[in-house]
Amino acid sequence: MARALIIGGGIAGPVTAMALQRAGIEAAVHEAYPAGADDVGAFLVLFANGLAALAAIDADAVVREHSFPARTAEFLGADGAALGSRPLAGSNGGAAPRTLSRSVLHRVLREEAARRGIPVHHGKRLVDRRTGPGGTVTALFADGTRAEGDVLVGADGIHSRTRTLLDPAAPAPRPTGQTTVCGRLRDAAHTVPPATYRMMYGTRGFFGCTTAPDGTTYWFANVPGTPAPGAGPAHWRRLVAEAFAGDGTPAAAMAAATGDDIVGTSAHDLQRTPVWHDRHTVLVGDAAHATAPNAAQGASLAIEDGVVLAQCLRDLAGVPRAFAAYERLRRARAERVVALSAALAARLAGAADENTPQRSGDGSADWLTGYRIDWDARVS
Ligand SMILES: Cc1cc2nc3c(=O)[nH]c(=O)nc-3n(C[C@H](O)[C@H](O)[C@H](O)COP(=O)(O)OP(=O)(O)OC[C@H]3O[C@@H](n4cnc5c(N)ncnc54)[C@H](O)[C@@H]3O)c2cc1C
After folding, report:
1. What is the DSSP letter of 357?
2. CB of 186 within 8 A of CB of 216?
3. What is the C-alpha separation between 250 and 304, in angstroms, rounded?
4. Closest CA to 307 of 371, 361, 245
5. Is the CB–ligand 1 distance for residue 32 below 6 Å?
6. For residue 323, how far is its CA from the centre of ligand 1 (angstroms)?
């Protein structure tokens, strides 16, 4: 097996391509959007497991360079009173989680793939696929072009076209009934001590924020409800400011002080995707298992998927065997994370510590952030 067509240049796509290259398999990334698309406000946290998976293919340095760490989580009750704090960085070698803008993460991963000689094609939206008699697979793109390979990897995110091509009856993503709003602001009145996430349990939602070394404060809010289509910055500011208005925390003031660097989204997940692969095509990342944002693990899972898939294709004879092993190694873990995140979303206004993934972020021994991939170990 020599050539892989990767559909999607988000997180799973470039990581899978880099891991395949390490495994001796040629890969090219095909991304629907033109280069440079931005997503205002949106940011991500990568936990120790995702960072370790990147390190397994020597791709963590570029992410560290563009992100900043958090070593402590502080908790405030709805009245603003401090509830306590705990470490996020690990006693057992677990790295401190790192925060960075989503568009920056996409960009630096694509750039790193390109730097390693992997072709990254933009403006290539997959619409269909064909399988050839010689065991090849052809991707058909919306611009009328096509590309041929030996396998097709669907890394095309939560609304994956590859998923529906694999299984037209595949379940659609499910709204979790929660809206997540992310914002950034530069305002000395609203900063958090270095390397700290400040988490606030509001009476009608959950709010978290951290301040980057350059003084920008990043915040997110999870509030119940589904956003109106086409909502803009004024809507998101008002939604969050109103949700936390009666509380004694700074959440409402921070939302109100945020400019246009703010974006909201209706949270969706995919609890179970029945078909992950056929003989030629396989799903990775959100295409296979999208999680609600509450556990902050979707990107880390996407990275893990790409590395494990490459190991399977490296070590096992025959694509069907490799795909079956990949699913065996990944499905249970991914669905467990999706279920955890869904439970956290359902308890949106629940008790302290039930609403935050960082409860598991203090070591490498636990199942969530302690997951490690040994690149040199053979898959059997
Ligand atoms: C509000 C919010 C906050 C989040 N916070 C976190 C967090 O803190 N930590 C964390 O780990 N995860 C977080 N997540 C989840 C994380 O963003 C996803 O799990 C992660 O982006 C999945 O990576 P992916 O590569 O599978 O998909 P994506 O990152 O969505 O990338 C898919 C790519 O495929 C492209 N594409 C789509 N369709 C096609 C097509 N037909 N042809 C070609 N290309 C196509 C898209 O343009 C995109 O570039 C959050 C999600 C949300 C919504």
Report:
1. G
2. yes
3. 36
4. 371
5. yes
6. 22
Q: pLDDT digit string (tens) for 74-99?
A: 999 999 999 999 998 765 567 999 99
Residue 33, ligand 1, Cβ within 6 A: yes
361 C-beta closer than 6 A to ligand 1: no
* Helix (H) or strand (E) run with residue 358 in it: none
Vertex 118 angle, CA 378 and 10, to 5°: 85
Instruction: Give the range among 65-69, 75-79, 131-135, 158-162 with minimum mean pLDDT.
Output: 131-135
Whether 241 is in the pocket of ligand 1, judged by its Cβ within 6 Å, is no
Asked if residue 285 has pLDDT above 80, the reply is yes
Reported as a pLDDT band with limits 50, 70 and 90, residue 222 is very high
State the span(s) of the chain assigned CATH 3.50.50.60: 3-69+102-174+269-360
Ligand 1 center to residue 80 CA distance, Å? 33
Q: Phi and psi at residue 161, in whole multiples of 5°?
A: -70, -40
The answer to whether 138 and 130 have CB atoms below 8 angstroms apart is yes
Domain with CATH 3.30.9.30 in the chain: 177-268
* Residues 6+ away with beta carbon under 8 Å from 300: 46, 47, 49, 50, 51, 53
Name residue, tokens 């636990």. Answer: 366
54-88 as b/e: b if 16+ CB within 10 A: bbbbebbebbbeebbbbbbbbbbbbeeeeeeeebb
C-alpha 267 to ligand 1 mean position (Å): 12
With respect to CATH, is domain 177-268 assigned 3.30.9.30?
yes
The second-level CATH assignment, the architecture, of 3-69+102-174+269-360 is 3-Layer(bba) Sandwich (3.50)
Task: Establish whether residue 51 lines the binding site of ligand 1, counting it when its CB lies within 6 angstroms of any ligand atom.
Answer: no
Task: In whole angstroms, give the CA distance from residue 33 to residue 121.
Answer: 9
